[in-house]
Structure formats: C-alpha cells, structure tokens
Amino acid sequence: MADDCVKVGGLGSNFKLIKQGAEAKLYKGIYLGRPTIVKERFKKSYRHVDLDNRLTKERMKSEARAILKCKAAGICTPALYLVDFERRRIYMEEIQNSVTVKDYVAQMSEEAVNGDADTGDLLMKLNPIAQEIGRVLGKLHANNIIHGDLTTSNMLLVNNGKDIPTVVLIDFGLSHVESSIEDKGVDLYVLERALISTHANVDQLFQVILSSYVEENKKQCREILKKLDEVRARGRKRTMVG
Amino acid sequence: MVIAIGFEGSANKLGVGIVRDGVVLSNCRQTYITPPGEGFLPRETAQHHRSVILAVLSQALQEAAVMPEQIDIVCYTKGPGMASPLQTVAVVARTIAQLWNKPIIGVNHCIGHIEMGRLITGSDNPTVLYVSGGNTQVIAYSRNRYRIFGETIDIAIGNCLDRFARVLKLSNDPSPGYNIEKLAKEGKKLLPLPYVVKGMDVSFSGILSYIQKQSHQLLNSGKYSPEDLCFSLQETLFAMLVEITERAMAHCGSQEVLIVGGVGCNMRLQEMMGAMCDERGAKLFATDERFCIDNGVMIAQAGLEMFKSGNVTKWHDTTVTQR
C-alpha cells in the first residue's frame, strides 16, 4: 500500500487535501489500514535553497524525535508511521473525533455570548481544560521536551468518554530537547502571547494552566516562573542598548 | 481642511513634516551619522537634534509654503524611543504649540509608521511588519486596536544589522543597513547561521553574537568575503521575518502585507516578502525611503487621524516615554 503511493510519486487518490497552513499541506487518507494524516512541507521560494532544505530537514527531524520522546514519556501525540525526507512528508496517526483547543474556546465563547453568560461563567467552563493543558505541559517540560510553538491551534481535545477530554499535542516542527530553564520559560511565554492575541477575553486561563503546570513539574517550576517574568520584560519593554 | 505639522526625533533622524488632508506638503529630515564602527548615543543624538531642529522647521514651512497661522495642529512623537532626543523634540513642539496657540497631540511612533504606510500605499487592512533599528513587530488591527501578534523577544532586526555593520567597520552614511544591502548584492556563498523562530516571535541576539564572534575568523580564512557574510545575514534574518509574517497572516486570514520602518527600505526584504505573497495570492505594500525611514510627516498624519476622532493631548500629558 505504501508502495503504491511511492510509485505514483504523489499520494494517489487515496489521500485528500484537508488543510493548507503557512508551512505545510495536510492530507487525510488510509495508510496501512489506518486513518492517517500526511504532513507535507512545501518548498518556500522566498528562502535561499540551501536554507530552505536545511530548515525543512531540521524541522522534520525535530518533529519525529519529539513525537517519539513524548510517547516514551506518556504524553499524547499522534503516532508516527513514516518519515519521507525526499518528498518532505511525515505520515502520522489521524486523531479522530477531535477539535483544536482554539476552536473549542471560540465555540464556548460564542455560546456564552449568545446565552448572555458572563466571562466568569465561561472561565469556569474552560477551567478543567486549562488544568489538563497545564498538566500535560508540566509533564512535557519535566521530560525536557520543548514544544517551540505552543498555541491553541496545536492542542487537540479528544472525547474519551470521561469528564475531562484528552489533550493531544501536535505540530512539533520547532521542538527540541533541552534541560535548561531558559527555553522552558520562552515556551510558556509563546503560549501566553498566543492566548492574549487569539483569546483575549479569556487570557486569565493562562494562570490556571500555570497552576496545574507547577503541580506536575515540581522540580524546576519555581525557576521557570522566574525566568518567565524575565522573558516578559525583554524586547520592547527593555531599554534599547547597543 | 486640516493642516498638521509633525515632529519626529525618537532615534537619530530628526524630521519635520507638514500634511494637509492626506497630501504631503513637505517632508524634511536630518540624520545624525556617526563614524564607522560607532553607534549613536542619547546625549550626542539629542545635541544633534537641538542644533538642527529650528532650521529643519523653517525649511518645512518654506517648502510647504505654509504660515504658522495656517497650521491647525502640532503633533510630536511621544514615544517609544530614546529619552533625551525625544525630550528635545517635545520641548520644541510644546513651545511652538503655545506660541502659535494650537492644540498639541502626542503620537505613538509605531502607529505613525503604520498610518503613513496605509496612507501612501492605500492598503486597507494589512498585516503589518514593522521593522527598524528599534522595533521588530508583526501587527494587525483587531477589535479597535492595533495588536502585536509576533515580535522580537530581544533586539530589533535593524539593531542587529547596525551592530554587524560596526564589526565590518562599514560607513554609517547614509545608514549602516543601506551599506550592508549594497555588499549583500555581491555576496554568493551562504554561511549557515542560527535561525531562531519561537512560535510567532523571533530572536536575533543569538545570530548576532554568533556572527560577531565568527566574522574575523571566517574573513581571515578566506572562505567567506564580507559580501558573503552580509548576504548570509540578510537571507537568514529576512527569512525569519517572512516566516512570522506568514504565520500571522495564516492566523488572521489576511491577504495584505504592509512593511514599514527603516529596514523596510531594503529591496531584498521586499523581494522575499513579495515572493511569499505571490505564493499565497496576497498583496504586498511597501513605501520608499522617504516614508520608511523615520520622518515628521508620519507623525503629522497619525496626529491628524487622532484629531479627527476627537483626540487631543492635555498639556500635563505632553511628556515623552521610552517604552
């Protein structure tokens, strides 16, 4: 079955394009009898060819490595099926019955507006999700995995029949392994800013996420929170030196 | 018919410009240029601004053929920027406003760039890449405010380029960035450099310290020429900017990009951004050095828009702020 795809040079009629992001195309289909997503990173013509090849290869490697490490650590990610450097494709498990945290929060916010609920009610509904996200991130960093692009579009919620859905992390192209505090602080900072810019009405969720994060990552949490404050104070809010 | 005069001096450019209902009547500017290998410091920059501002003001009035009585509002850069240069300009603006008895408006420097960009290019609701010596941000307008989606988490790209120019001892005339661009055109070999994108943010201090440390060795070994280094730095830095801009566009569903700020003059950056836009079916808007580089007109224009929506700065608020 994999041979058919390879022979044709393309993915064959088996696969359908479902999404096109800034960096890659996502195809959906069946591979080895399982529902599969193929992530194909396209060539960026604006970049120098060498730079483009180097970045794509690095990101594919990072993604594959991070997924395997997460599996070993017990963090939910799609299962990795195949990595094809030549065609810049990664074949992975399609997580079914899922919705991104971004869409879920947007949906809840809209329902709240329509139902005349206030922000307090909305936050209460979202709290369990935020807590679960914090737990997963705490585990991620406790295992020295840096995601590199934490946004609500890169977290999936899967209905598992229990009260709290499973949080699945995706899109590890910018990830790497690092035990230092600096990168973990920056990782959290990226999430905080993503929340503020995308879900401004519920950015208090970040505090909820942090509170369960520190429970899960007890070893380094104090220093990481301090580092987070430091990172927040950089850039625009710092005196221009040099 | 409102005529606005704008004063800008947050960095080393001192600009005075006059605008009337979207038409630029005059745009005068003087730049404080330091010797090769040196950057500009607050005290000397403020001294420079003090020494030229009145002359530039007269020139602006003359070129616009406008008398002080005809000016309706006085606008100045409230911030962000360097404290003493900002203060120097604010003092003059305050004095002028009182002498001529006109309302005064403190304008945000970054918004000045954006409003000018929009006026000159006619773009409607673009994703804005604001890149200069002091700023590197990706901005989009949402829910009544300009919001920052991505930015540098340490230094600005212009600052990175300027500091590298010092390592190569390039001339600062007309600007270090311009001379890097010139050299880069002759560069051929791509040196692998650290490429740091964190989510929608970028970080330049790593690539700067790497290239500062390695330059001498690389140049002495004969493997890379100064042209190659400039070329490699631009290709890498600009690719990072294009990437975060593209992410913001994908996030906001935007089909327009506007580049503002001094680094926006760089033709290679415009070229790369254009290539990305073509692939997405989006449109690129950019201005030339008259408006990319800090100028007084952008302050006048933004001030005018603020005035039209009822915003005037109270006297005790006519201060400046570094951030």
TrEMBL record, chain A:
Q: Name one GO biological process term.
A: tRNA threonylcarbamoyladenosine metabolic process
Q: Where is the Protein kinase domain?
A: 12-242
* E.C. designation(s): 2.7.11.1
Catalytic activity reads: L-seryl-[protein] + ATP = O-phospho-L-seryl-[protein] + ADP + H(+); L-threonyl-[protein] + ATP = O-phospho-L-threonyl-[protein] + ADP + H(+)
SMART domains (alphabetical): S_TKc
Q: Which GO terms describe its molecular function?
A: ATP binding; hydrolase activity; protein serine/threonine kinase activity
- Keywords of the record: ATP-binding, Hydrolase, Kinase, Nucleotide-binding, Nucleus, Phosphoprotein, Serine/threonine-protein kinase, Transferase, tRNA processing
Q: Name one Pfam family in it.
A: Pkinase
- Spell out the protein name for this chain: non-specific serine/threonine protein kinase
From TrEMBL, chain B:
Domain Gcp-like, residue spans: 30-300
What's the EC number here? 2.3.1.234
Location of this chain's protein in the cell: Cytoplasm; Nucleus
The record, for InterPro entries, names: ATPase_NBD, Gcp-like_dom, KAE1/TsaD, Kae1_archaea_euk, Peptidase_M22_CS
Q: Quick one: a GO cellular component term?
A: nucleus
How many cofactor units bind, and how?
A: Binds 1 divalent metal cation per subunit.
The protein in question is named: N(6)-L-threonylcarbamoyladenine synthase
Q: Which organism is it from?
A: Cryptotermes secundus
